[in-house]
Amino acid sequence: MFSIGLSLGVKEILDPFKKPGVLVNSLTLNLLAIPLAGVGLAILFGLDNVALFGFLIMACSPGASYGPRITEFAGGDIGHSIGLMFLLCMVAVISAPLTIALVVPGAGGIDIWPVIRTLAIIQVIPLFFGMFLKAKRPRLTEKIFSPVFWISNISAAIVIVLALGYRIFGESKSSLEGIIGLGGVLAIVILVVISLVAGYLLGGRGEATRKSMSVSTAIRNAGVAFLIGVGSSGDIHGVLSVIILYIFLQTLMTGLLAGWWGWKDYKKNGGRVKESISP
Questions:
Q1: 270: which residues sit within 8 A by CB, 6+ positions away?
Q2: Residue 110 dihedral angles phi and psi, to the nearest 5°
Q3: Which of 48, 96, 246, 272 is 20 to 30 Å from 139 by CA-CA measure?
């Protein structure tokens, strides 16, 4: 979140508000439609226990931090993607715990206020500190942006590797297939497809904004899901395994689509690429 803050300015934050219709569509999709679609798919494929919990907390957690990077590869509207990610990250602090408490069976007993408080501390404070540095110390921001960006990505990868390592070599050695099954994998794939298509169709008239909306809707917030999963489930490592599988599939599918979009733009523009994100 600190890394994200270093790349955010007032312009990026306000960008989604320039297209109020698209903004309403995005909030409706991310906060209502995708969680409800997740519930429907969970019922359709008979998910239960850990598979159900891990799948639905991802469906209920919008605003992934790496959405703008994938939007960049897709040739989408990067400014819109960054602003939308900021807005969804802020909204997710309250919306994700509340939505999970409403739609996840057995989650009604979760004390959501400690979760909201922890999310606020983890997401809001480092995000706004990064934005403060960008506004007040732009030269310092330019120097530290690259190492902070890579540290954040490497640390996220380490968390995933450690969680997988515990699943493979730890005391609990049940296979991923035994945890989520083929039905769970299909539910994830279908929900990602629904998110991509719905985001694109409801992304307004501009092609770049449609790409941004598609990616932003499909990439769910694994950080929020990790925190809620760890704090609310008896089988922590089982839930983490489901979340990691969701991360892998959403990144793979969205990345392949973004690569195809980017390749089409590359050929259309005669071999020229768009400028990358910078602080």
A1: none
A2: -70, 135
A3: 272
Dist. CA 126–CA 88, nearest whole Å: 16
Q: Using CA atoms in the order 171, 175, 179, 185, what is the torsion angle rounded to 10 degrees?
A: 150
CATH class of 2-266: mainly alpha
List pLDDT tens digits, range 181-218.
889 999 999 999 999 999 999 998 889 999 999 999 99
Domain ranges of the chain: 2-266
Residues 53-58 have a mean pLDDT of 91
Token pair 């942006």 is found at: 145
What is the pLDDT confidence band of residue 277, given thresholds at 50, 70 and 90? very low
Could you write out the three-class secondary structure of 68-88? HHHHHHHCCCHHHHHHHHHHH
CB 61 within 8 A of CB 247: no
Main-chain phi, psi angles of 86, to 5 degrees:
-60, -50
| CA torsion through residues 69, 79, 276, 195, sign | positive
61: tokens are: 């957690």
Q: What is the mean pLDDT of residues 56-77?
A: 87
Say whether 185 sits in a helix, a strand or coil: helix
Residue 80 has a pLDDT of 86
Q: Output the DSSP codes for 110-164.
A: S-HHHHHHHHIIIIIHHHHHHHHHHHH-HHHHHHHHHHHHHHHHHHHHHHHHHHH
Helices 49-59 & 176-201, crossing angle to 10 degrees? 20
How far is 260 from 266, CA to CA, in rounded Å? 10
**Total residue count of the chain as it appears in this document:** 279
Alpha-carbon distance values, 257 to 16, 101, 149, 208 (Å): 23, 32, 24, 14
Asked if pLDDT for residue 224 goes beyond 50, the answer is: yes
